[in-house]
Amino acid sequence: MYLRKTILATGVALSALATASFAHAEPTAEVLHWWTSGGEAKAVAALKEDFQAKGGKWVDSPVAGGAGDAAMTVLRSRVLSGDAPAAVQLKGPAIQEWAEEGALADLNDVAAAENWDDVIPAAIQDVMKYEGDYVAVPVNIHRVDWIWANPTLLAKVGADTVPTTWDEFNALADKLQAAGITPVAHGGQPWQDATIFETVVLGLGGPEFYQEALVDLDDDALNSDTMKAVFDQMRKIRGYVDADFPGRDWNLATAMVMNGDAAMQIMGDWAKGEFLAAGKVPGKDFLCAPTPSENGYLFNTDSFAMFNVSGDDKIAGQKLLAELIVGEKFQETFNLLKGSIPARLGVPMDKFDDCAKKSEADLKSAQDAGGFLPSMAHGMALRGHLSGAIVDVVTAHFNSDMTSDEAVSRLVEAVELAKD
Ligand code: BGC
Fold first, then answer.
1. Segment holding 127, helix H or strand E
2. Which atom of ligand 1 is nearest to the CA of 301?
3. How many Å lie between the centroid of ligand 1 and the Cα of residue 342?
4. pLDDT at residue 23 in the model
5. Ligand 1: does its nearest atom lie under 6 Å from the Cβ of 375?
6. What is the whole-number distance in angstroms between the Cα of residue 229 and the centre of ligand 1?
7. Could you give the CA distance from residue 194 to residue 202 in angstroms, rounded to a whole number?
8. Domain span including residue 328
9. Is 420 exposed, middle or buried, given 0-12, 13-18 or 19+ CB atoms closer than 10 A?
10. Is the pLDDT of residue 8 over 80?
């Protein structure tokens, strides 16, 4: 009798314990991301701190490599081996691709509780949802089409502003080169070549051409004189970089501008995160201006997708992380460090600098003028096999003496093959 009572009592106690531990499962999230440069690391640390302050356990899985190419390779092998990380930095059509595979968890209950439909812009909601269900959360809006410049070096050749046309850009670069200054800081990695390429497509072709060529993959646009002129301009820019550019990481190229080793870098505003992390002041130590275009704006929204995992602690971790990311406080803190602007509507911009304020103002005017366009180089416009086909040609051209005619015909061919 005594024994039976003890067993029963122990059973009750154990099940009470189990219930308690379920209710208080420590929210845990393994977070796979590629934010490893100075500015990026500061920004992601802010997310980690918020998460920990709310009782979360953060398991950091950084995979170095700009634009996330290496991170995406690691992700594929992790999912294939049945060991998906809980939260993954993922964006654009790749979110849809993973959702189609059935790999993503839906976040609809957090979305409803937090009113995401009211605070996330409609265009960004479309990217975050799969068949009407939220499967990812947006962190920011990065603008890709920027020039970052060193005002002291520009002043050496009598310039006090960043060029506003590509002809002016070339004229300034020629002057800088004649004065012994490297005009363009660049890292020879395919995604960095593609980053420059898409800004030139936008600038020389205009927003409509960009949409036709790099979003709709229209044959006539790809096979056009305009596209030939784009490759001609890429050849010019190739002449403005220093000899050591192959393989250089983007943040080292940013450091060249910062340290006076090169005058300008064409890069998204994560570069501003590097300047800020180094204590540099916009408008004084460095200049920011959009690459020449008519009311264009190439956007790149970082986001996190939650992969299917099991375990109450992990599921609680995913929900907590998703809630924090879309929250107003996080959107402000993170984006002040990252160089981007909030993806959430209504976050006050008063603490942001002039580059961010310009980004926000230009975003609105680009939207009105039809120039708000997804970045091809940063995985916002096309699925990976299609953007990969374009980037390969861009890089092959940049790193050889291929003519523009040949680049155009290779581009048309590569896109055709990839479409099949
Ligand atoms: C990401 C940024 C990141 C940059 C360099 C971009 O594709 O959107 O968040 O800072 O790559 O790694």
1. helix 122-128
2. 8
3. 15
4. 52
5. no
6. 28
7. 12
8. 2-142+300-357
9. exposed
10. no
**Do 347 and 392 sit in the same domain of this protein?**
no
β-pair type (341-342, 140-143):
antiparallel
Closest residue by Cα to atom 8, ligand 1, is: 302
Mean pLDDT over 367-390 rounds to: 97
Both 254 and 387 in a single domain?
Answer: yes
For residue 7, pLDDT beyond 80: no
- Alpha-carbon distance of 21 to 15, in angstroms, equals 10
CB count, 10 Å around CB of 417? 10
Output the residue whose Cα is nearest ligand 1's atom 1: 67
- When pLDDT is averaged across residues 192-203 and rounded to a whole number, the result is 98
Pocket of ligand 1, candidates 31, 32, 378: which has the most ligand atoms within 8 Å of its Cβ, to mutate? 378
Pairing of strands 287-290, 146-149: antiparallel
Which of 36, 42, 193, 300 has most ligand 1 atoms within 8 Å of its beta carbon, as the pocket-test mutant?
300
Q: 327, 357, 387: which is the final residue of a domain?
A: 357
From the CB of 66, is ligand 1 less than 6 Å away? yes
- Which pLDDT band holds residue 25 (cuts at 50, 70, 90)? confident
Q: Are residues 188 and 320 in the same domain?
A: no
133-183 pLDDT per residue, tens: 999 999 999 999 999 999 999 999 999 999 999 999 999 999 999 999 999
Question: Quick one: DSSP state of residue 32?
Answer: E
pLDDT tens digits for range 283-318: 999 999 999 999 999 999 999 999 999 999 999 999
Any atom of ligand 1 within 6 Å of the Cβ of 67:
yes
CATH number at residue 8: 3.40.190.10
Q: Are residues 41 and 190 in the same domain?
A: no
CA-proximal residue: ligand 1, atom 3 (nearest): 67
Q: For ligand 1, is residue 274 a contact (CB within 6 Å)?
A: no
Is 304's C-beta closer than 6 angstroms to any atom of ligand 1?
no
| C-alpha to C-alpha distances, 170 to 263, 287, 314, nearest whole angstrom | 13, 18, 53
User: Model's pTM, two decimal places?
Assistant: 0.94
Q: Which residues face 299 on adjacent strands?
A: 143, 374
Ligand 1 nearest-atom number relative to CA 91: 8
% of the chain at pLDDT higher than 90: 94
Is residue 389 over pLDDT 70?
yes
Q: Residue 100 phi/psi, 5° resolution? A: -60, -35
**Percentage of residues in the chain with pLDDT exceeding 70?**
94
Interval between CA 271 and ligand 1 midpoint (Å): 9
| Pair 254, 271 in one domain | yes
